[in-house]
């Protein structure tokens, strides 16, 4: 029973933290510079998640060697995404290179 209440409480907090700002901001028109700036938030958050995984794969040490499959697969996936802007192709190409790199190394 305690687990159910905990999950219910976490759902309420998560919903409230997201709904309240959206409900309040819906009444206002945001200035154009702020709207343009907010468009960069998703890529920046994604980069903050992905970059440490690529550059610090083990023991929190910077690894930019040829043996770092995470780094090279990530860079390859970035190039594919930039060139073709196709999410499925990006995922398949990045994972394919990652697996190939790991099998060969």
Structural account:
The protein is mostly helical and 105 residues long. It has 2 domains: 1-30; 35-104, no CATH class. Helices cover 76% and strands 0% of the residues. It contains 5 helices and no strands. The protein has helices at residues 2-25, 32-38, 41-55, 69-84, 87-104. Helix 3 (41-55) runs antiparallel to helix 4 (69-84) and helix 4 (69-84) runs antiparallel to helix 5 (87-104). The longest helix has 24 residues, at 2-25. It is extended, with a radius of gyration of 20 Å. The relative contact order is 0.06. The model has no long low-confidence stretch (mean pLDDT 93).
Task: Let me know the average pLDDT.
Answer: 93
Question: Could you tell me the number of beta strands?
Answer: 0
Gap from first CA to last CA: 49 Å
Radius of gyration over alpha carbons? 20 Å
- State the secondary-structure class: mainly alpha
Shape: extended
State the helicity in percent bands.
Answer: over 70%
Mind describing the biggest β-sheet? none
SSE order, as H and E? Answer: HHHHH
Integer count of domains = 2
User: What portion of residues belong to β-strands?
Assistant: under 5%
Number of helices: 5
Which spans have pLDDT < 50 for at least 5 consecutive residues?
none
């Amino acid at each position: 029973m305690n687990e159910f209440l905990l999950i219910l409480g976490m759902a309420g907090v998560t919903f409230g933290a997201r709904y309240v700002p959206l409900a309040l901001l819906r009444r206002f028109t945001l200035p154009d510079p702020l709207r343009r700036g907010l468009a960069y938030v998703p890529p920046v958050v994604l980069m903050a998640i992905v970059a440490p995984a690529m550059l610090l794969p083990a023991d929190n040490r910077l690894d930019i060697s040829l043996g770092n499959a995470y780094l090279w697969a990530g860079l390859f996936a970035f190039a594919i995404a930039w060139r073709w802007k196709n999410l499925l192709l990006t995922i398949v190409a990045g994972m394919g290179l990652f697996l190939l790199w790991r099998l060969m190394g």
